[in-house]
Amino acid sequence: MPRVARIKSKSNIYHIMIKGINQQDIFTDDEDDEKFLVILDHYRQKIEFEIYAYCLMGNHVHLLLKEGKEPLSNTIKRIGTSYVYYYNWQYDRKGHLFQDRYKSEPVEDDAYFLTVLRYIHQNPLKAGLTNNIASYLWSSYKEYIHKQKMVKVDFALSLFDQDKNRAIKEFEKFNYGINQDQCLDLTEQKKTLSDKMVRKLVLDKYGVELALLHNESKKNQLEIIKYLKAQEGISMRQLSRLTGLTLNKIFRI
Q1: pLDDT digits (tens, 9 = 90+) for 172-188
Q2: Closest CA to 200 of 128, 250, 145, 136
C-alpha cells in the first residue's frame, strides 16, 4: 500500500514522535539521553529549526518544533541517523533502531500548541516514571522554569503573560493541570512499558536486576516472571529478551 502523505502545517510547527523498532528501548543509559540531546542541539543550530518542547522516554521521543531551513523529513532523518550510528557503536550492535517512519501532526493554533506542550511534559508523569514533572531529567520543562539552553521558551510563555515571572507561574500551573489530553497517538490505546520501566518495576519490588535473573533461585525467578506477566503492557517476547529465558519457558510459567 502507498504511504499516506503527511499533512503540511501552515504554521510549520509539528508534534513529532519517534519510536524504537518493536517497542524496544532507544535509551538504555543516561549517557544515551545526553547524546540524543547533543545531537538534537547540533542540528538545531545547523538547520535553524526551533524547539518548543521535548521529552525522552525509554522507547520513544516526543518533540514540538518548527521546521527550519530544510524539509522536516530531512531533519528527522539526520537526527535519527546520527543517533543510531552512536547507539550501534556504543552497544556493539547492527541494524535499525527506530521504526521506519516517525509520526507527525501539524500544530496550527495557540490552543493546540499549549495542549501538545503539556502533553509532552506530562508524559513521564502519566507513564509512572515520576510523580513530579520538574524532577524528570529528560524533558524541556526545566528549561522553562530554570535556565534556557536550546528550547525557545519565549513564545510559549508569551501565551500566558507578557511579564516573564508571571508567565512562568501560569506555565507551571497549566502543566500540572489535570486533563485528558490525547495527542498524535490517540489510536494507540494499548499501554506498553519500555524496557527501562520493566527493569525498574523489578528493581523497586524485588531489588533484583532483571538481566541477572538467572542468578536467582528458581522460586524467585518464578515469582518475578509471574508478577511481570500480570502487568499490563509487557509482552512475553519483551520478557524473553530482557531475561534471556526462552519464549516457551515464559509461556509455561
Answers
A1: 999 988 776 777 754 34
A2: 128
